[in-house]
Write a structure and sequence with these properties.
Blueprint: E1 7-13, E2 18-21, E3 28-41, E4 47-59, H1 60-69, E5 75-88, E6 94-107, E7 126-129, H2 134-149, E8 162-163
Parallel strand pairs: 4-6
Antiparallel strand pairs: 1-3, 1-5, 2-3, 3-4, 4-8, 5-6, 6-7
């Protein structure tokens, strides 16, 4: 069985997205950062706020749509897979970064410019999906079938988030 990664991230953009084009080829790509806020209850009953910052890459037509409609502070849901990049930095040390490569971006909350679309939800959300290959669709469907058959597992995990004061 092949391994499969699925990432679902809901949060707000920390900055305006940056649309760029590959050279050569001119393929559009976009990078954005999403802040995911949550509240965690400590053992003493005190609640603390934490935030995790997630880097997201978006490609092709989906990148152009995100650049057109998304701005800093806009709430989004991103569905995609984890990708790791490795390289040697200018200082000669090995570097690594894990990011979500978006397959689907859902714009949440009302648009600043107003207006309406046929597929817009009551809260102004608009689903945007990258074209999915047959292989990706089969892998996703297989993963979803496995998840439906698997009983819910409730394990406490170490919180790797950053505490916000």
């Amino acid at each position: 069985m092949n391994d499969y990664s699925l990432a679902i991230v809901v949060g707000r953009l920390t900055r305006d997205p940056e649309l760029k084009y590959t050279n050569p080829g001119g393929i559009p790509y976009l990078r954005m950062s999403i802040a995911v806020n949550r509240q965690v209850k400590k053992e003493d009953g005190e609640t603390r706020k934490t935030v995790s910052f997630v880097e997201v890459s978006v490609w092709r037509r989906l990148a152009e749509l995100c650049a057109q409609f998304l701005k800093k502070g806009r709430a989004v849901m991103v569905v995609g897979s984890l990708r790791q990049s490795r390289w040697i930095g200018k200082d000669g040390n090995a570097k690594s970064r894990v990011e979500v490569q978006a397959d689907r971006v859902q714009f949440l909350g009302p648009r600043e410019s107003g207006g309406s679309r046929d597929d817009e939800g009551p809260d102004g959300s608009v689903p945007v999906r990258a074209k999915e290959s047959q292989e990706e669709r089969l892998a996703r469907e297989s993963y979803e079938d496995d998840m439906r058959r698997r009983p819910a597992e409730h394990e406490e995990e170490e919180d790797a988030s950053h505490e916000v004061s």
